[in-house]
Amino acid sequence: MVCPPTTSYAVYNSILSPKTFIPAPETEHYNYPELWREAWVWGEKLLMENKK
User: Fold this and answer.
1) Dihedral angle of Cα 43, 46, 50, 52, to the nearest 10 degrees
2) What is the dihedral sign for C-alpha 7, 10, 27, 37?
3) Burial (CB count <10 Å: 0-12, 13-18, 19+), residue 14
4) Helix and strand numbers, DSSP H then E, in the chain
5) pLDDT given at position 2
6) 11-25 pLDDT, tens digit each
7) DSSP class of residue 17?
8) Closest-CA residue to 39 (of 26, 52, 25, 22)
9) pLDDT tens-digit readout, 28-45
10) Contact call for residues 31 and 9 (beta carbons, < 8 A)
11) Is the pLDDT of residue 5 over 80?
12) pTM, full prediction
């Protein structure tokens, strides 16, 4: 997911809940498999926490 830094930080700063921001300027328009894996783990954890 690629967005200009100003857009990304504006959204990040407006969200009040716990969050993680991983700037990776060297990836340009490419996402590494490790980043996708981390995103899936985060999403699955979030889903499991909300099931309780």
Assistant:
1) 120
2) negative
3) exposed
4) 2, 0
5) 61
6) 899 999 988 887 777
7) S
8) 22
9) 777 788 888 988 998 999
10) no
11) no
12) 0.51
Pair of tokens at residue 38:
């981390």
Residue with tokens 């996708």: 36
**CA–CA dist 1, 50 (Å, integer):** 25
Q: Which tokens go with 40? A: 């899936």
- 1 pLDDT band, cuts 50/70/90, is low
Both tokens of residue 20? 């993680």
Q: Which position has the token pair 């100003």?
A: 6
Residue carrying the six token digits 């499991």 = 48
DSSP-assigned states of every residue in 5-28: HHHHHHHHHH--S-------GGGT
What size, in residues, is the chain?
Answer: 52
Structure tokens at 18: 């716990």
